[in-house]
Specification:
single chain; 81 residues; mainly alpha; 5 helices; globular
């Protein structure tokens, strides 16, 4: 996907911290994980897959396995609950 979750997946930075950095520096109203939680992963993953397919299956737009796994578990990206 366009938003890269690797730093969070690798444990380099927390999802909330990454969101706060992007909100403060880029003036986003919500961090990326906050937005995906609000939208719902049941919506986020299929939309990401649709974008991936519409852009000639460019790997840049492919939802990460971590995101797909979290969606399957039905847990928050921020809290893990």
């Amino acid at each position: 996907m366009v938003f890269q979750d690797k730093p969070v997946v690798m444990g380099i930075i927390g999802a909330g911290t990454m969101g706060n950095i992007l909100k403060e520096t880029c003036r986003f109203p919500l961090g990326p994980f906050e937005l995906m939680d609000l939208t719902g992963l049941d919506v986020t993953v299929p939309v990401s897959e649709s974008i991936y397919n519409q852009f000639s299956q460019d790997p840049l737009y492919l939802p990460s396995p971590w995101l797909i796994r979290r969606a399957g578990l039905g847990v928050s990206l921020l809290t893990g609950e």
